[in-house]
Amino acid sequence: MIAAIIRAGVTLLAALAFSLAATAEQMRLPTSPDIVMTNPASRDGLDLSGSWAWSVDPYRDGLAGFHGSEAGKGHRRYDVEDVDAATRADPAALYEYDMRRVPRTTLPGSWTGHAPKLRHYEGLIWYSREFSHAVTPGKRYFIRVEAANYLSRVYLNGVFVGSHEGGFTPATYEVTDQMKDGANAITIGVDSQRSPETVPPPVTDWETYGGITREVRLIEVPETYVDEAWVRLTRDGKIAATVQLNGSAKARAAVRVEVPDLKLVLTGTSDGGGLAELSAKAPRKLQKWSPGNPKLYDVTVIAGEDTLAERIGFRTVEVRGEDILLNGKPIYLRGISMHEEELGTDPVRAMSEGAARALLSEIKYGLNGNFVRLAHYPHSETTLRLADEMGLLVWSEVPVYWLIDWENAETLAAARSMVAENIHRDRNRASIVLWSVANETPVSDARNHFLETLIGDVRALDGTRLVTAALLTNQSDQGDGAEARIDDPLAEHLDVMAVNTYNGWYGGMPLADVHALKWPGGYGKPMIFSEFGAGALAGFHEDEPARKFTEDYQAEYYRQTLAMSDNVPFLRGMSPWILKDFRSPRRQHPVYQQGWNRKGLISETGRRKEAFGVLAAHYAGMKAKSGD
Ligand code: GCB
User: Is this model's pTM higher than 0.90 or not?
Assistant: First the structure.
C-alpha cells in the first residue's frame, strides 16, 4: 500500500515535471544554428572533396583510454603526427595508429564504398587529409561539413573545433584561429552508431550509410559577412528579405539586396544584433516560379565588404479549404517519393548534380510529375537547387521516423536542431512547398507533444510554407465496403494531411478490392497520399494470377490504387513509394530482394518496370487537363 502511494506520488511528480518541461519547451524559441552560411558553394575557399585517409576505430580508441580517461598520445588520430618518423626518432615510442599509412578513399561518399566489409559497420571511422591555403589577414575561415552520418567531430591542425549530431544537415565551424598559412591538416571522426535516443533510431527501412556523404569545404569570408539571407515573395505580394550579418561590424550596417533583372533594390540597416528586415512591393513584371515556368532570378546581398550571390524563385503557396494553391491557383501534386541514393549496383549516397539530375529527370519527364517527396531526411542542397531549376515541387522532411524516444529531452533537442538547420539551409528554395515533421509515428501524448513542438518551430521559422506529416490510418468495414479514416490528433495541427496507405500489399485486403476503398472527408483540409507502393523485381513476370514481386502484380496494384484515388474528393496529390529500388537491410528475400526494397518504379540500375508506365499515363492525363 505504502509502496503504491509512493509510486503514485512519483508518477504525479514525474507528470508534473513533464508538463512543466513541456511548457518551457513550447515557450522557448526554436534553436538556430550558430552559423547558417547561406549558399556555401558560392563562397571563396577550397572544396575539400577528393582523397582522404580513413581508419576504422570500432572501440573508439581514438577518443578514450581503456578506463574511460582522455585518449593518450599514440591513440589520438587527430594529432598531427608523422608516426613513422616519431617511432624512428624514439624507438620506445608506442603508436597504435598511423593515419599516413592507412588506405585512402574519395569523399564524399559513404564508407559502404571504401571496402565491402564495411557494409553493415556501425561505429567510428576517422578521416584525414592535408590541404594548402594562403591565409589572408583580416579574413575569417570556416569548415563546412554538408553531411556526416551520424555524429561527427572536427579537428583542424590537431585542435578540436566542434561536433555535430545528425546525418543530414550541415555544420559550420569557425577555424580562423586554427588556420595556418600554407599546409593544414583536417581530421573528422564520424560515428554512425544509432541508439533508441537518436533521430532516426536504429530501426529504419533504409541503409544507414555511415560516413561523409556530402561536401566538406573551407570557406573564406570578410571579417563581417552576410551569414544568412532569406529572400521570398510574401502572400501579400511583397519581396521580403531577412538578412543576418555576422562579425564585429554587424550592428547598424547598411544592407542592400538587389534583383537586377527586376530592377529591384531593397535597402535598410541592421539592428544591434546584425539583423535586417527589408521589403518592397513585388514589381509587376515579376514572373512567378512554377513547375511549368521555373524562373529563377539572380539575387545579390551586399553588406560592408561582403557580397553574397543567390538564385531564387518567387512564388506563394497556401491552403484554401481542401485546396492547395500555388500562386493563388489550385494545384494537384503529381509526385513520387525518393531516397537520397544514386543509380547503380553499389550506391554510396554520393548525390552529385549528375546523379540527382538522372533521378529528377525520370520524375519530371518520364512520369510527367511536378512533385517529389524527398524521404526520409533532408536531402543534399544540390538536389534542392536542381529541383528549383527543373521545376519540381518538393516535400522536405526530418528523420523523425517510426519509434522515436518521445519522452527524452535530448532527442527532442536533436530533432529541433535538425528542423532548424534544414529550414535555415533551404528556405530560399522555391521548390519546397511542404515541411514534414514525422513519418508513421504511433499516437501517444508524449509523441503529440514532441511533434507539436516541431510544428511550432517550423511555423516560427517559416510562415510561408505548409506543414505536414505522414500519418497512419484506421480502417473499418461499414457493410458496403471498407473505409479508411485518419484518427490522429496531430491532423488538426497540419495544413495538409498526408497518409501512407498500402492496401493490397500489406494487410489482408485482396488486390481486386482496393479500388473500392472509401475515404470519408469532413476534415476541411487537403490530403495527399504520401506513400503507397508494392514490390517488384525488375524483369520478373508471371501469368495470372500474378503473385507479389512480379511486375504484373505491382502494375495492377498501381491501377487499383489510382482508381481508388480518383474517388477521394479531398485528395490533392500523391507521392507513391518509390522512384527507385533502394538498399534496405530489412529486406532479405534471397531471390527478390537481396537487401533491396523493391518498391521502385525503376530498378537500382534505372530499368523501368511496368508500373512506371501506369503512373506516367495517369499523370499525363492529369497534366493535359491542368495544363501545367
Ligand atoms: C513505409 C515507410 C517507408 C518504407 C515503406 C515500405 O510506410 O514510410 O520508409 O520503406 O513503408 O516499403 O514498407
Answer: yes
